[in-house]
Structure to design on (460 residues):
């Protein structure tokens, strides 16, 4: 099996990694770069625990090969807070009690950030629709949806 | 290295520099290599051990693969590697082929649609494919590059069985071509899953209707059904009724019944055949009523 040398930016930092053809982005993040905030729930595209932002779009990192990420700009949960300041989606999910075991949380927060980037004022339906691919076995989703609404409000206020 | 889940089996990732090189490689490795788009079907099949490819041939970067273009005379062209989120968000698709955007939006989740493609959905040839029905209803054709060069394949004759198509070793779909949408067309996709959103379909009902002076009813309806047969299924008797007889509420019911009578679904983990048949009738009726409502409102 061939090895591929890839260059990419992860949370603003340039990285060079040698990966095998069959290494997924999820495996590279967790096993090679020790970025274990991104979780492996199903490795099958179903649960969303592995969601990361690739060139601005959320993607299941278990469903893309690391070698396909040559030249990519990647944001993982480790890169969401800036200069010690939590992203509003992080602050809101704490405020709303939207974290229990926390396994789904990194993926939820990436999906939520991506939603607010493309749609700063989402309806309840739009929030649910954007989070369909993020399963949570603990919270019952209600506080998570409330958190995304709160984050949208906080973002609006910060912009004013 | 320990991992809670099995990773992908071993294979080589291949990234050819041209379509000619890609087709030649695929032809030289029959049964060992396949074209690779989003991989959302491919990874699942490989992880589950059903596919044992030695090579995945990435063609997403090749010419025309990432483009969406529209021309009022020629219609819409979507590159094979354009992901479904781009289709859903495209103003061209929303304006001229909203049924296609609706169908694509129903697939899986936002983050999976960052990977999944319409051409992959079609080439995978699952009877459950959500976007296939809209492509059939709009009379789309696939532009294929093979070892002998380019050709077009209509969707009507494309599917041969679950996972089976007319594609030959070396063939790569480059783009999907939609003729201009019929004037005044209205469409509806109803997907019944086990959840409100995000599941594979128990049944999927695509209906496209438009005024057509050449049919006795003055209208033409295209219907395509997902998850009711080994291939995407067109209930021809229902379409014929709606073309031949004057459209009334009773005829919409008769056509829905004809759609149900025409299909022979199976029992599987998502549903029983009996339930599928009943849902084909009820939801085809619902879709027809919805589309006819908009068509008749436009005619008033
Ligand atoms: C969690 C999950 C949920 C899903 N939910 C849905 C759903 O709700 N509805 C639905 O319809 N599907 C669903 N799917 C299936 C899948 O996402 C779709 O079928 C998708 O459109 C496949 O596109 P792809 O680009 O990922 O294809 P790939 O996996 O890359 O390819 C699929 C097949 O088509 C062939 N192929 C791809 N591109 C070409 C080409 N250009 N030329 C020739 N052959 C080609 C490949 O060789 C392969 O055999 C789901 C899958 C997962 C993992
Ligand atoms: S680990 Fe990727 S979707 Fe579950
Ligand atoms: S908090 Fe436990 S899975 Fe969501």
């Amino acid at each position: 099996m061939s090895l591929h040398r890839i260059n990419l930016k992860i949370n603003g930092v340039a990285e060079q990694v040698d990966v095998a053809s069959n290494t997924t982005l999820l495996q590279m993040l967790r096993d090679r770069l020790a970025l274990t905030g991104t979780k492996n729930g199903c490795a099958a595209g179903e649960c969303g625990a592995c969601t990361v932002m690739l060139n601005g779009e959320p993607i299941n990192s278990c469903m893309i090969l690391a070698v396909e990420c040559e030249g990519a700009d990647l944001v993982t949960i480790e890169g969401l807070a800036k200069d010690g300041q939590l992203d509003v989606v992080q602050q809101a999910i704490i405020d709303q009690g939207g974290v229990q075991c926390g396994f789904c949380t990194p993926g939820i927060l990436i999906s939520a950030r991506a939603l607010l980037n493309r749609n700063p004022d989402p309806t309840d339906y739009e929030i649910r629709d954007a989070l369909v691919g993020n399963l949570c076995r603990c919270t019952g989703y209600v506080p998570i949806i409330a958190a995304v609404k709160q984050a949208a409000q906080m973002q609006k206020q910060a912009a004013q | 290295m320990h991992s809670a889940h099995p990773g992908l089996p071993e294979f080589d990732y291949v990234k050819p520099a041209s379509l000619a090189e890609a087709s030649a490689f695929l032809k030289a490795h029959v049964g060992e290599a396949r074209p690779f788009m989003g991989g959302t079907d491919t990874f699942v099949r490989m992880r589950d051990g059903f596919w044992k490819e030695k090579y995945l041939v990435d063609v997403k970067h090749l010419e025309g693969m990432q483009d969406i273009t529209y021309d009022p005379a020629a219609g819409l062209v979507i590159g094979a590697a354009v992901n479904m989120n781009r289709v859903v968000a495209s103003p061209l698709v929303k304006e001229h082929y909203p049924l296609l955007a609706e169908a694509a939006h129903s697939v899986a989740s936002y983050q999976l649609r960052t990977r999944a493609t319409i051409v992959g959905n079609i080439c995978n040839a699952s009877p459950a494919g959500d976007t296939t029905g809209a492509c059939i209803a709009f009379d789309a054709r696939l532009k294929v590059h093979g070892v002998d060069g380019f050709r077009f394949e209509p969707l009507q004759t494309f599917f041969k069985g679950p996972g089976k198509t007319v594609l030959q070793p070396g063939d790569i779909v480059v783009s999907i071509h939609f003729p201009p949408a019929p004037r005044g067309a209205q469409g509806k996709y109803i997907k019944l899953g086990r959840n409100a959103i995000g599941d594979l379909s128990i049944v999927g009902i695509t209906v496209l209707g438009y005024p057509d002076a050449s049919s006795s009813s003055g209208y033409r309806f295209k219907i395509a059904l997902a998850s009711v047969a080994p291939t995407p299924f067109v209930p021809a008797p229902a379409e014929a009724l709606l073309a031949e007889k004057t459209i009334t509420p009773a005829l919409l019911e008769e056509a829905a019944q004809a759609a149900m009578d025409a299909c022979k679904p199976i029992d599987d983990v998502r549903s029983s055949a009996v339930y599928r048949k009943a849902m084909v009738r009820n939801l085809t009726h619902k879709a027809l009523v919805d589309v006819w409502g908009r068509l008749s409102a436009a005619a008033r």
Summary: The mean pLDDT of chain B is 95. The first helix of chain B runs from residue 19 to 28.
